[in-house]
């Protein structure tokens, strides 16, 4: 049975994006013209921009992104963002809640020093099975980042697409990653980000239910629109960015 047209289109987009990710400056230049039609947020809205690896060559670019966003609104932590969604904290303008995915060593060497210098909070969604692999963080690195004040959430055990897994395997990915991170870091893990993050293609409603039953309070997707008080924390909408992109390309993802 062939997937519906919209689903096939999304799969094709994912293939193109995977190829472009290997050349992020080129990707940014391709995206930038569309940014002419957008503007960075000015109206009240909660945004969840996220990154993956931040190579040393892109350290200055990440600083530029963070400085630009912070001129439009405060950079807040995950707890504070969930308080906004719950209506416990007012949303009077744009707000930005930053996160990072996978288990990149550059979190320790590049991203964290910049975030600490700029006093920007961040959530690190950790793929537990990647920890300790060559080029990735160790558990001791993660403990040091946690001690520095950064939050950790789960990004599954293997980073496989949940929608491709049977019920039992998908549930293990969601539950076991939480348990392992908690055991290694000595913290409670209550936030989850689905790998790839697009509903139907990458995860199912089944996975949101499993995450809620496992004790997660939030479930992050890669849908992009801004969020507002009353929106569900079990359907967080995040905007994927690369630090190599020019601000005009950022505007294609983070905008009113």
UniProtKB/TrEMBL annotation:
<dbReference type="GO" id="GO:0016810">
    <property type="term" value="F:hydrolase activity, acting on carbon-nitrogen (but not peptide) bonds"/>
</dbReference>
<dbReference type="InterPro" id="IPR002509">
    <property type="entry name" value="NODB_dom"/>
</dbReference>
<dbReference type="GO" id="GO:0005975">
    <property type="term" value="P:carbohydrate metabolic process"/>
</dbReference>
<dbReference type="GO" id="GO:0005576">
    <property type="term" value="C:extracellular region"/>
</dbReference>
<protein>
    <submittedName>
        <fullName>Polysaccharide deacetylase</fullName>
    </submittedName>
</protein>
<dbReference type="InterPro" id="IPR051398">
    <property type="entry name" value="Polysacch_Deacetylase"/>
</dbReference>
<feature type="domain" description="NodB homology">
    <location>
        <begin position="94"/>
        <end position="256"/>
    </location>
</feature>
<dbReference type="Pfam" id="PF01522">
    <property type="entry name" value="Polysacc_deac_1"/>
</dbReference>
<dbReference type="InterPro" id="IPR011330">
    <property type="entry name" value="Glyco_hydro/deAcase_b/a-brl"/>
</dbReference>
<keyword id="KW-0732">Signal</keyword>
């Amino acid at each position: 049975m062939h997937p519906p047209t919209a689903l096939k289109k999304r799969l094709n987009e994912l293939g193109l994006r995977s190829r472009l990710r290997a050349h992020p400056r080129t990707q940014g230049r391709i995206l930038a013209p569309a940014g002419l039609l957008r503007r960075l947020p000015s109206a009240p809205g909660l945004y969840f921009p996220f990154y993956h690896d931040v190579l040393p060559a892109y350290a200055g670019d990440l600083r530029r992104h963070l400085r630009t966003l912070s001129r439009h609104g405060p950079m807040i932590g995950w707890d504070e963002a969930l308080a906004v969604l719950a209506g416990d904290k007012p949303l009077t303008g744009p707000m930005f809640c930053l996160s990072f995915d996978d288990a990149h060593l550059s979190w320790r060497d590049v991203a964290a020093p910049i975030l600490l210098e700029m006093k920007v909070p961040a959530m690190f969604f950790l793929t537990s099975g990647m920890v300790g692999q060559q080029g990735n963080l160790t558990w001791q690195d993660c403990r040091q980042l946690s001690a520095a004040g950064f939050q950790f959430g789960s990004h599954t055990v293997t980073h496989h697409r949940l929608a491709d897994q049977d019920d039992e395997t998908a549930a293990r990915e969601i539950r076991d990653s939480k348990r392992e991170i908690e055991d290694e870091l000595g913290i409670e893990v209550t936030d989850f980000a689905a790998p790839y993050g697009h509903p139907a293609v990458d995860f199912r409603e089944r996975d949101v239910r499993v995450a809620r039953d496992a004790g997660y309070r939030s479930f992050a997707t890669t849908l992009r629109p801004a969020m507002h008080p009353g929106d569900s924390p079990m359907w967080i909408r995040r905007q994927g960015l690369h630090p190599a992109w020019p601000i005009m390309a950022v505007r294609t993802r983070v905008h009113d």
